[in-house]
Write a structure and sequence with these properties.
heterodimer, A: about 280 residues, mainly alpha, MetI-like fold, two-stranded antiparallel sheet, 9 helices, B: mainly alpha
Chain lengths: ~280, ~270
């Protein structure tokens, strides 16, 4: 059917790739943010601990969509401001002029002369960073709980063997915490999948953008394939896509959990041992 | 113009009372606080009605999912899977365009394509599915001894459910249900960012916050105000649900009472 292979439809299919790419990049970055946050929250230095706990509490207490809208502008302005300070030290006009944010032309990001692809890449990386900051807080919360769940006796044994604080952390605590963290992290992965349509709000041409674009009424003047308002069907297709994606993730994560609990001194591991 | 005049002009702007036009210049702190606060009316409206109605459907779904009748069980399972497995954002879009398509069939569906009813229905189904799953989990962990004791006292069928099973289920589910309620209030901010239009610019708190952020190109004022309002709302929800939790657990000895811990780890 020719209708489904028009150039715009190809872009629509490509945008599924954009979503998957975002997920693939965001997940490890958010995990790194979460690890940093969890380490800060259990640090022995008080200001660092407060910083880590405040990061977790504030991001989780406020609607995530507000953060998406906030960080995209805030990060953009932050980067431009930093470049402005570095590149144009003798610029004396104020940056905030009433309702405008003005930096010198050399500090603009991306440069107004750069090709379209850089503008898109910059927007995309801002989106990734925003997702990583928001989901990093959730991951930090999960990892913080997991670190506390590792039996105290394990750490005491390590200390009795003369390991330093750092050695105990990296060699005993971190390898053991994953099994406690996995239920929370897999929940977080589901949540991350379900947050991807919000990309649309960040100005990325993602699947929601194309579904609206392609589904709207078309007159014969502009296209060979005129049709009425088909947006219901396009969004129905997106609904099915997300349902399948979460179902597959559920099954895969279930298998991973089964493998990880094998031989662990937890209820799940005990049940596996009895069943065998 | 003092701040009280601003309150008089914009305090109820989101429900169409007061000044018609949104401020176009001179975005004072007072204007931002008042207008974003005015938008909170919609967040509270959606949250309370969806939670109130969703509670009953959630109970029905939990009982249905635990039922022995295959048709009932499958129906509840699919309902819960569809609403928990897909993003709320897509659900809003889908529902909006569905209602638009139905509108051309019959004028009966006119109010459904407006946010106050259409979005409310989506939120109602969504929270019912999430809380239904929570209640189902709690239903399975009602102690066996309680049900046997009820049988020994001659309870069965509806009276047993009403007097024994249901209160215990609620008691067990309440901490998780509190988090669900908090997240539902957060989810109400999505309404005006999906298909549903804000008629005459009567939007919710986030709608006004993003309006100010766009106009002033300064996100550092409007969004923290919004965050402050939501933290306040979260504290109120915790207080109300905590009071209900104490009521549900009042028969237990003091040290066995589980407090509600604020531990949200789900978003839609």
């Amino acid at each position: 059917m020719c209708y489904l292979t028009t150039g715009k439809h190809m872009a629509f299919y490509g945008s599924f790739g954009t979503v998957l790419l975002l997920l693939a990049i965001t997940a490890p970055v958010a995990l790194a943010f979460g690890f940093g946050g969890a380490m800060a929250a259990r640090s022995r230095v008080a200001p660092l601990r407060w910083l880590g706990k405040a990061y977790i509490a504030v991001v989780r207490g406020v609607p995530d969509i507000a953060f998406f809208l906030f960080f995209v502008i805030a990060l953009d302005q932050l980067f431009e401001w930093l470049r402005h300070q570095a590149k144009c030290p003798d610029w004396d006009a104020a940056i905030r002029q009433g309702n405008d944010f003005v930096v010198c032309p050399a500090a603009k990001l991306p440069l107004s002369s750069s090709p379209q692809i850089w503008h898109e890449a910059y927007g995309f990386s801002l989106a990734v960073l925003t997702f990583a900051i928001v989901f990093g807080a959730f991951a930090a919360n999960v990892l913080f709980g997991a670190m506390k769940a590792v039996p105290r006796a394990q750490l005491e044994t390590a200390e009795a063997y003369g390991m330093s604080h750092r050695q105990t952390f990296w060699r005993i605590l971190v390898p053991q915490m994953w099994v406690y963290a996995l239920p929370g992290l897999s929940n977080l992965w589901m949540v991350l999948i379900k947050a991807t349509p919000l990309l649309f709000l960040l100005g990325i041409e993602d699947i929601v953008y194309w579904a609206r674009e392609l589904g709207g009424s078309k007159t014969p003047r502009f296209t060979d394939y005129p049709h009425g308002d088909w947006r219901v069907y396009y969004f129905g297709a997106l609904l099915v896509f997300y349902l399948c994606f979460t179902r597959v993730s559920e099954i895969v994560l279930g298998r991973v959990m089964k493998r990880l609990t094998h031989g662990q001194a937890t209820m799940g591991g005990e049940a596996q041992r009895k069943a065998a | 113009m003092s701040c009280w005049d601003v309150v008089a002009d914009y305090g109820l702007r989101s429900i169409g009372i007061g000044e018609r036009l949104l401020p176009r210049d001179d975005f004072t702190l007072c204007k931002q606080v008042v207008l974003i606060g005015s938008g909170m009316i919609w967040n509270v409206y959606f949250g309370i009605l969806a939670l109130g109605a969703g509670f009953f459907l959630a109970t029905a779904l939990a009982v249905g999912k635990a039922s022995k009748v295959t048709a009932l069980r499958k129906l509840s399972e699919w309902f819960i899977f569809v609403f928990r497995g897909s993003p709320l954002f897509i659900q809003f879009f889908f529902a909006y365009f569905l209602f638009l398509a139905l509108k051309s069939v019959s004028p009966l569906f006119d109010p459904f394509s407006a946010a106050w009813l259409g979005a409310l229905i989506v939120l109602f189904f969504n929270t019912a599915a999430y809380s239904g799953e929570i209640f189902y989990g709690a239903l399975l962990s009602v102690p066996k001894g309680d049900i046997e004791a009820a049988g020994a006292y001659g309870f069965s069928g509806w009276p047993r459910f009403r007097r024994i099973v249901w209160p215990t289920m609620l008691r067990l589910a309440w901490p998780a249900y509190t988090n669900e309620a908090i997240f539902l209030f957060h989810a109400t901010t999505l309404v005006f960012f999906s298909g549903f239009p804000a008629w005459q610019q009567r939007g919710d708190a986030l709608y006004y916050a993003s309006y100010f952020a766009d106009k002033t190109f300064n996100p550092f004022v409007a969004y923290p105000i919004l965050a402050g309002y939501f933290i306040l709302l979260t504290l109120v929800v915790i207080a109300v649900f905590g009071a209900i939790n104490r009521h549900l657990n009042r028969h237990l000895p003091q040290e066995h009472r589980a407090g509600v811990r604020y531990r949200p780890n789900l978003v839609r």
